[in-house]
Design a protein that fits this description.
This protein is mainly β. About 10% of the residues lie in helices and about 60% in strands. It is globular, with a radius of gyration of 14 Å.
Length: about 120
């Protein structure tokens, strides 16, 4: 049985440290899992509620000036049989044109976390 969470979100980009952060509003994290340059935050109900991307410009293959101009995002996560899938869609302005990026991340996780799905966005 899947558990679902739909919630508004917020984001921030720290260009001096090159860290991109997405968070579900009004939910606090309980624990984190580090996966290379990614830190995935979970709340006390074991829903994904945050995503930090270190070395974001390198990880995403985008210049910092693009990440500084983020206008909105949509984060969807799913955990199914210990496989974490993250779909991150975000919109940024490049040369006065809106550009949409859709990175997808699949990662096996060792922790026993129940199957769940999260949809979080800021438009």
């Amino acid at each position: 049985m899947n558990r679902n969470l739909n919630a508004p979100g917020e984001f921030d980009y720290d260009s001096s440290n090159d860290i991109l952060f997405f968070k579900v509003k009004e939910r606090n994290y309980e624990k984190s899992i580090e996966l290379g340059d990614l830190v995935i935050d979970f709340d006390d109900e074991e829903f994904v509620v945050g995503l930090q991307i270190f070395n974001a410009s390198i990880f995403m293959g985008l210049p910092k000036k693009v990440l500084i101009n983020l206008k909105g995002f949509h984060l969807q996560s799913q955990i199914l049989n210990q496989i974490l899938t993250l779909r991150l869609t975000f919109v940024t302005m490049i040369r006065n044109k809106t550009t949409e990026y859709k990175p997808i991340i699949y990662q096996k996780i060792d922790d026993t976390i129940p199957n769940s799905e999260l949809v979080c966005s800021l438009n």
